[in-house]
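Quick one: structure tokens for this chain, please?
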Amino acid sequence: MSKTKRFKESETLELKTSTSELKEAVISIVAMLNKHQTGTLYFGIKDNGDVIGQSVSQKTLRGVSKTIADYVEPKIFPEIRHEIVDDKDCIKVEVNGQNIPYYAYGRAYCA
């Protein structure tokens, strides 16, 4: 029997249904960095914690990385990886940064 991992959003953990919410994810990353200088975001998990999965390919991972690189200032270097959660494909993004304030799409956000 596989163990079900439970997720609950917090000021340093953000959950997104899919990469269709990439713009909102970038804003969430900046807000976490500005308040806590660290954060984790998952694609493929609903905000209520239900793991639904996400299509993951090298192109998807590169797209997430490029969007973060293009729209977050100052630059950050997130760890973006494919992760299996409850037997479903998800994307995990871990960020850290000390150069606050950070901006997404030209605007500063805070959690």
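Residues 5 and 86 are 7 Å apart (CA to CA).
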